[in-house]
Amino acid sequence: MSSHVLVINAGSSSLKYSLVDAKSGEAAATGLVERIGEEQSHHVHHGPSGSYDDDQAVADHEAALEAAVQAFETHGPALGDVDILAVGHRVVHGGDKFAAPALVDDELIAAVTELVPLAPLHNPANLEGIEVARRLLPDLPHVAVFDTAFHQTLPPYAYTYAVPTAWQEEYGIRRYGFHGTSHSFVSGQAAALLGRSVEDVNLIVLHLGNGCSATAVQGGRSVDTSMGLTPLEGLVMGTRSGDLDPAIHGLLARVAGRSAEETDRALNSESGLKGLTGVNDFREVSRRRAAGDERAQLAFDIYCYRLKKYIGAYYAVLGRVDAIVFTAGVGQHSAEVRAAAVSGLEGLGIRLDPARNADPSDNIASTDDSPVAVLVIPTNEEWEIARQALDVVGS
């Protein structure tokens, strides 16, 4: 019986797609259309009969999905030849309305639309991708999988900010958390690697890409996470500042005449590694650091110091930690970050093996006698979205 799911991740100017076997995780084809709406868009598709890589004008998301369907026809596998059970859509913000994936219907569309003020950069694009896909693929069930859903298990004392209660009641101001599909997937993989059930392990999961987040996972449930109302809070990221004094907004308004929108945009798009070094690509920061660039060294130190603080905080939250798990681009590929983040934490039972950390081919970077394992596990959000979508349509 087929278990294929077409996974769609629509961004403001991009459309990422993948045809995934939800049971095995194997992708029959993947593709990405970038710079949608610009004079020259870029579309790459990898299928069983070859790859397609071309620059062409793509006016909108509907044209992008039409181009994707044509790429399937030309480079395989043709969608009509595959028994696709569902279309799974990544949706960034589900607020406190969605603690699980859900079938897309008019009621869901209305609920996600109401949440746009909480995710103005993401939810509108996610909605557009859903609406386009429903028009072009009307005979398939569509499932929304929310980045925030995994964190709906946070206890009230972890998600409630110490602000006037009316703000939460009227405007939904609270901690929501993000990267939930990644944290969920990696938690399951880590438990399997340890040879234990996910309900039996406590983990600190560090998703380190251009966006970064840390999550304390207790028995398979998120009990605290670093991102908050929006993805801005928490760790230092590629272009986001992470934690800072909220009075910065008021100070800049008074002394520089900056509007709240200008400051918010700068903290999301011009801060983090980019604000410290001028570039947001961690690989370039590493190259500059190796060449002796002092600003790159400072950025690296700030980045890893923030990581270490969160590891310590979540160790205290969990009480017992079975593993520290690094994932996503930086987490998976930077041995230097992993080493710096856990340096000096031997007293907490975290013992890194330098040789294993340099080449964690078996997904383990700690010593055999380390009470807390250090794991390096690639994330696979597309597979997790496919699995959750299959769970919904299967039930």
Automatic annotation (TrEMBL):
Residues binding substrate: 90
Gene Ontology molecular function terms on file: kinase activity
Catalytic activity: acetate + ATP = acetyl phosphate + ADP
PROSITE patterns reported for this sequence: ACETATE_KINASE_1, ACETATE_KINASE_2
Binding note for cofactor: Mg(2+). Can also accept Mn(2+).
Binding site for ATP: 16, 207-211, 281-283
Principal location: cytoplasm
UniProt-listed InterPro entries: Ac/propionate_kinase, Aliphatic_acid_kin_short-chain, Aliphatic_acid_kinase_CS, ATPase_NBD
Subcellular location(s) of the protein: Cytoplasm
EC number: 2.7.2.1
Keywords of the record: ATP-binding, Cytoplasm, Kinase, Magnesium, Metal-binding, Nucleotide-binding, Transferase
PANTHER family according to UniProt: ACETATE KINASE, ACETATE KINASE-RELATED
Quaternary structure and interacting proteins, as annotated: Homodimer.
Function: Catalyzes the formation of acetyl phosphate from acetate and ATP. Can also catalyze the reverse reaction.
HAMAP family for the chain: Acetate_kinase
Protein name (record): Acetate kinase
UniProt gene name: ackA
